[in-house]
Design goal:
single chain; about 160 residues; alpha+beta; Aminopeptidase; five-stranded mixed β-sheet; 4 helices; 5 strands
């Protein structure tokens, strides 16, 4: 699509969009070998939102033609768990499946990074599922490096 993408700060009326899109895309955060129950995945996402919204956070929504197409939620007081160094941390980012590969994720990520720099945070961290090749490619193009790996084994 050639319509302009506008990234703006989240407003209270965006909460239902964030809840809906996050629930619809949460499966992208689960490895293919893991079994999951949709209701438990929704409950996990609701718990994540509760955690994010109870502390300082930064959130942006990307719109095209006035319609929300994606969002990013960034925590700015969550230090790296190993070094305790300050960092911005992407708690969740999602783009409407029909709007993927249109530059929306790139714009959202850039907005969060710009805000982290403005706040003097020296790093940006996030987690991505190994199976989510499109998201990993986005992050790699943006300069993200693999720092750690979570290993899991089905039993």
């Amino acid at each position: 699509m050639n319509q302009e993408i506008v990234v703006r700060e989240v407003r209270p009326e965006d909460r239902s969009f964030i809840e809906d899109l996050g629930k619809r895309t949460m499966g992208d955060s689960v490895a293919q070998f893991r079994y999951y129950n949709e209701s438990m995945l929704e409950a996990s996402y609701e718990g994540l939102l509760d955690f994010v919204f109870r502390q300082p956070y930064v959130a942006y929504v990307a719109e095209r033609a006035g319609k929300p197409q994606g969002f990013v939620l960034m925590l700015d007081t969550m230090p790296d768990e190993v070094t305790r160094m300050p960092q911005g941390f992407i708690a969740y980012m999602a783009v409407e499946p029909s709007a993927r590969r249109d530059g929306i994720g790139t714009r959202l990520l850039s907005a969060a990074e710009d805000e982290a720099r403005r706040r003097g945070l020296p790093y940006m961290g996030l987690m991505v599922t190994e199976d989510n090749a499109a998201a990993r490619a986005l992050y790699e193009r943006a300069g993200y490096l693999t720092e750690r790996r979570l290993l899991c084994k089905p039993l």
